[in-house]
Amino acid sequence: MVTLMTTYAVLSEDLEKRFGKVHALRGLDLAVPEGSVCGLLGPNGAGKTTAVRLLTTLLAPDAGRAEVAGHDVARDPAAVRRAIGVTGQSTSVDTDLTGRENLRLFARLHRLGGAVARARADVLLDRFALGDAANRPARTYSGGMRRRLDLAASLLTRPRVLFLDEPTTGLDPASRTAIWDVVRELTLAGTTVLLTTQYLEEADQLADDIALIDRGRVTVRGTPAALKAEIGAYAEVVVADDAALPGAALVLGRLTGRPAALDAGRRAAGAATTDPDLTLPRIVRELDAAGVPVVDATLRRPTLDEVFLRLTAPEEALA
To answer: Among 183, 121, 112, 126, which Cα is nearest to 153's?
Structure first.
């Protein structure tokens, strides 16, 4: 029998980091297979950005160990830097330079020769649909164009591992979709991507695997589909008038065993359920028996947003 060994592009074990009295990472364990996209999610202050800064050698860990592209981040940070590309939360382009000048500058900073720098800059400008604007100052670019230029700069060295920290924050839907397409192309070509994002739809679209960080450690790990299945289904009812909303919430709470979330603006009540026997006809019958006038009722799989809210809710809110 042949055993296939998984090769990890990013690996951390018991990673810890303190900032004074703040314990930012409390034993972070992470394993990202080569050629995959790992979505790193968590509430604000959970430790996502600290983890990225440690893995990209911008910070040193206080305890534990980590490897990126086979190199120890503490013992051989230079080798790690040669193997990675990083796009941070804000663009790093020089707005006084043209798009082409920016890429050539970054290429020379990476010690690429002049001819190689020019060739790679031209290829990336075309790949990111910036060819027509290549000779314009970056200050004339839209936010989406600057973000694409920043991402292009991180790919000049053809990195084995790409770190994307909130890559589409503040972008319009068209620009966000364009960056998603680039990420998909990169992973098809074998690049490993570690993605932090506040957009749950983005993680749902791109991530092969999701690691949920809370209080400095990974608390939940799985594919988007597996995480949704763990939560179960989501029942939602829209009622005819405001007075019926409390009654709908009571029925849903009794059927699902969980407090219903209310959306007064839509006159809707919703609750997650892991009961495989709960059906939409049963929900409608129970509402009818309780005298709740229903406009619409659905029973569907939860979105990743609902999974995130459920898994990061304080324990007392789940009681």
So the answer is: 121
Strand-strand pairing, 192-196 and 161-165: parallel
Q: How far apart are CA 76 and CA 37, in angstroms?
A: 24
> Which pairing describes strands 268-273 and 261-263: parallel, antiparallel, or unpaired?
antiparallel
Tokens of 249: 């919430």
Q: Are 69 and 78 in contact (CB under 8 A)?
A: no
Question: Token match 């989406």: residue?
Answer: 144
Distance of CA 248 to the CA centre of its chain: 34
Domains and CATH numbers, the chain: 8-227 (3.40.50.300), 233-300 (3.30.70.100)
Q: pLDDT tens for residues 1-52?
A: 444 456 899 999 999 999 999 999 999 999 999 999 999 998 888 899 999 9
Angstrom distance (rounded) from CA 259 to CA 176:
35
Put residue 40 in one of left, alpha, beta given phi > 0 → left and psi -120 to 50 → alpha: beta
* pTM (2 d.p.): 0.76
DSSP alpha helices (H): ranges in 155-263? 173-188, 200-206, 224-231, 245-256
User: What does DSSP assign to residue 75?
Assistant: T
Count CB atoms within 10 A of the CB of residue 308: 22
Evaluate whether 27 touches 215 at the Cβ level (below 8 Å): no
C-alpha closest to that of 231 among 293, 276, 280? 276
